[in-house]
Amino acid sequence: DAGVIQSPRHEVTEMGQEVTLRCKPISGHDYLFWYRQTMMRGLELLIYFNNNVPIDDSGMPEDRFSAKMPNASFSTLKIQPSEPRDSAVYFCASGDSGPSTDTQYFGPGTRLTVL
Amino acid sequence: AQKVTQAQTEISVVEKEDVTLDCVYETRDTTYYLFWYKQPPSGELVFLIRRNSFDEQNEISGRYSWNFQKSTSSFNFTITASQVVDSAVYFCALSPVNAGNMLTFGGGTRLMVKP
A37, A43, A94: which to substitute to probe chain B, counting the most B Cβ within 10 Å? Predict the structure, then answer.
């Protein structure tokens, strides 16, 4: 079975531009998580969905960030407008809440650079 | 509040040495999960192990072993006969045993195995 798929793998953009990151979770998983990794703050949870519904977005840094999950196989994280401090690696992870798993599997990440 | 501490930010060993990565956690939950993830230089996060708080049996998988001690809130990871391919950043993480399973990560330990 394919793992979590993220695109693009690398994104370089200029300050003020809109950035959209994409994620396809593992088929059958009912949870989807977006994380951000920076040297200063480590791995931080931004938002997570259960059955396509956002459950907790308290980690979203500010209104410039938004996330959607229109269906069970696709999610986006959008930054508009982007700023240099948004430069980071963004990971998507999916998980199955069944008792035998309860484990999050991560995608390869998107390395975002905002100039 | 949950917290995971990996006091060792960086460890350097010579190939074939044994190495232990420390992880100490704090939680008010009576049941919880503990995890270890590996982040090799390529950047992806690879799931290694999940442990439930009510199962304190140590686990061994090949050269990897994990020592869970609830009394000291520790979940240490030992690599026996380390290899250069073990070089990576290793993250310990904690989550509640409930819907969502939001992960709280430690700061990571960078392991360098020299030939």
Answer: A43
Are the beta carbons of A67 and A2 closer than 8 angstroms? no
Would strands B88-96 and A31-38 be described as parallel, antiparallel, or unpaired?
unpaired
Query: Is residue B99 very low, low, confident or very high in pLDDT (cuts 50, 70, 90)?
Result: low
Of B37, B44, B95, the CB nearest to A108: B44
> Does A108 reach chain B within 8 Å, measured CB to CB?
yes
Cβ-in-10-Å burial (0-12, 13-18, 19+) of B108 comes to buried
- Token look-up 């996330």 returns A67
Residue A101 has pLDDT above 80, yes or no: no
pLDDT digits (tens, 9 = 90+) for A14-60: 999 999 999 999 998 989 999 999 999 999 999 999 999 999 898 99
User: Which residues in chain A are contacts of B36 at CB distance < 8 A?
Assistant: none
In this structure, the number of other CB atoms found within 10 A of the CB of residue A92 comes to 28
Question: What are the tens digits of pLDDT across the range B27-72?
Answer: 998 889 999 999 999 899 999 999 989 888 888 889 999 999 999 9
| A94 beta partners | A32, A105
